[in-house]
Amino acid sequence: QVLTWRSSSKDMLPLERERQSVTAALQDAVNRFQGMVDPDTMAFSADLRSERPVRYDPRALQAVVLNLLTNAYKYSGEEKRITLSSRDEADRVVIEVLDNGTGLTPGEAKRVFQPFYRARRTDGENAAGTGLGLAIARYLVMRHDGTLSVHSEPGRGSTFTISLPGAADTP
Which residues in 21-171 belong to E strands, given as ranges? Predict the structure, then answer.
C-alpha cells in the first residue's frame, strides 16, 4: 500500500477507464470479499440497483469497494451487519457501504481519510494495516471525478458513500 500511495500521490497510477455500469465491478468486489471472510461471521447484503453508465477503471473501483467492505468487517463487533448498495441519483451513481461497527467520533471522521491514520476497533485495539487504505480509496475516487465521504456516529456504525458522475450519452 505504501508503494501504491507513493504512486497515486504523484498521479503516476494509470487508470483504464471504461464506460459501463458499476454493477459488475461491485459484484466482483463482493465475490472477493466473501472469499476472504467466513460468511457465518456476519450478515451481509448487497442491493445493486444502479444501471447508469460511468466512466471508470473497474480494477480501481473494485479495490476501493473491497477496502470499504474489509474495513466494515474489521471495525464491526461480533454481530457484524454489512450492506453494500448502489443506486442512480440525478446524474450520478451512488455506492454505499454501511456497517453496524463502532462508528467514528466527529474528530475521527475528519481524519479517517488522512494517510497513516487508523481508528480504534470495537475492542479498543488498533486494527492491522498501514492506515493508507482510505487515503488511497479517496484519491482513486477523486481521480474518477467523484467523492468519497463518511457519515458516522459512535456506537451506531458508519456509512461510506462514493458518488460518481454518470457518463455522457455518447460512448
Answer: 42-48, 54-56, 80-89, 92-99, 147-153, 157-165
Contact 113, 5 (CB under 8 A): no
Q: Which residue has the cell 488522512?
A: 114
Q: Which three cell numbers stand for residue 70?
A: 474489509
What is d(CA 139, CA 15) in angstroms, rounded to the nearest whole number? 12
Buried b (16+ CB within 10 A) or exposed e, 68-80: bbbbbbbbbeeeb
Interval 12-42: pLDDT, tens: 567 899 999 999 999 999 999 999 999 899 9
**β pairing state of 147-153 and 92-99:** unpaired
Could you list the beta-strand ranges (E) of 65-126. 80-89, 92-99
pLDDT for res 3: 46
How many beta carbons lie within 10 A of that of residue 115, not counting itself?
16
> How much is the mean pLDDT over the chain?
87
- pLDDT tens track for 71-128: 999 988 889 999 999 999 999 999 999 999 989 889 888 888 887 767 665 455 555 5
